[in-house]
Amino acid sequence: MTESIVWDGVALPGLAGKVALVTGGTGAIGWRVVTALAAAGMRVGVMGRSPDLVHRRTCEAPRALRERLYAVPGDVSDPAEATDCVETLVERCGRLDVLVHAAAVGDSGVPLADLTAAEIDRVHAVNVRGTMLMAQAAAAPMRGQGSGSMVLLASVAAGRAGARGLVYGATKAAVVRMARQLAVELGPDGIRVNSVSPGQTPTVLRGVDEPPGGPPVAARGGGEAAIPLRRRGRLDDYAGPVLFLASDLAAYVTGIDLLVDGGVAIRR
Q1: pLDDT value, residue 1
Q2: Residue 155 is a catalytic residue
């Protein structure tokens, strides 16, 4: 269910009239970012692995936003599809100003002894290779324009170790590292690259073996006592920082990882 569009009518500098592509655009955070960017006046490409869900999402969006949304289904881990999605959106809209890379899958949470090579490879294919491929594809039109912003969704798991989640945490640490590397490499072309690390999200990330397009699963409650703000994150809590980094409000911000976790990371 879409939360209230709190950015409707808010003029965030550098967004109105521009073009964004959101990978993982049918997921909980991804879709919230899609609607927030569209409400801020952007034209937004919605990318996801399930063509049916991508088209259904865009067709069922609020009327005020629907005309700004473009369905561009594709798999971020496939080089041809990553390139095709970017090129299709550029052909339709004439440019690409913002990439929000929210596509990701979780691991099974099994201990090291039970991990399989197949699971390791599948999680890396989406979370690491997919990030690189989408950045590579999006950089081409942005370089031609001499401007652009990429926001990569990482996770607090990149810096906080637990009893499980070895593969997922390692891939998200790679995303944070990629944002820094890309910020240095693409900065001379006028392209900013940052990452956002969400904390306790309201839904469970889909597993690598789950087919795309299924309904979101609510995360189990509890654990709020360990969060300094004493609550779990809401979708708007994560969409707002993404909009900030995408906009000209962050025109001199690049290479950072913005923790959005209610203060969990400071309690290491």
Answers
A1: 32
A2: yes
Contacts of 52 (CB under 8 A, 6+ apart): 213
What are residue 69's DSSP bridge partners? 44
Which phi and psi angles does 98 have, rounded to 5°?
A: -140, 135
| pTM of this structure | 0.90
Instruction: Give pLDDT tens digits for 132-186.
Output: 999 999 999 999 999 999 999 999 988 877 767 899 999 999 999 999 999 999 9
166, two tokens:
């070895």
Which position among 155, 195, 197, 247 bears the catalytic label?
Answer: 155
> Residue 268 and residue 262: Cα distance in Å, rounded?
13
Alpha carbon separation from 164 to 117, 122, 157, 200 (Å, rounded) = 16, 17, 10, 16
| 233 contacts 259 by C-beta, under 8 angstroms | no
167 with 128: CB under 8 angstroms?
no
Q: Which of 18, 77, 149, 168 is catalytic?
A: 168
Quote the CA–CA distance of 179 and 30 in Å, as a whole number.
18
User: Does residue 149 carry a catalytic annotation?
Assistant: no
DSSP 134: H
